[in-house]
Known about the structure:
alpha+beta; CATH 2.40.50; six-stranded mixed β-sheet; 1 helix
Amino acid sequence: MAKSSAYRHVIVESFIPHDTSGRHGLVHIRPIPGQVFSPKLFVECSKRLVDAEKYPVGTKFKLLAKRTDRRGGTEFLYAYHGDPDVVITDKEAKAFMAGLKRGHI
Length: 105
């Protein structure tokens, strides 16, 4: 049975995993540590975010995402591919994380 949670903002980053078996592409997206979502969760989002020519590996983005297992398997984060790309700086990411710790976000 598919489970799904409400959409919420999450900060993610692009990275190159050590082991790319079982996944698509060289560059992946993961939540940054310190949020509700584990950095180990796979993120399904727009392929634009993994375009290394447009966004260098390590770029951070703010997504509106939800946790789901809608395919009946392992849980993952889903962000609609048509949403705009919201690139954020390290400073903005730190401010977002500070807001989480205070319960404001």
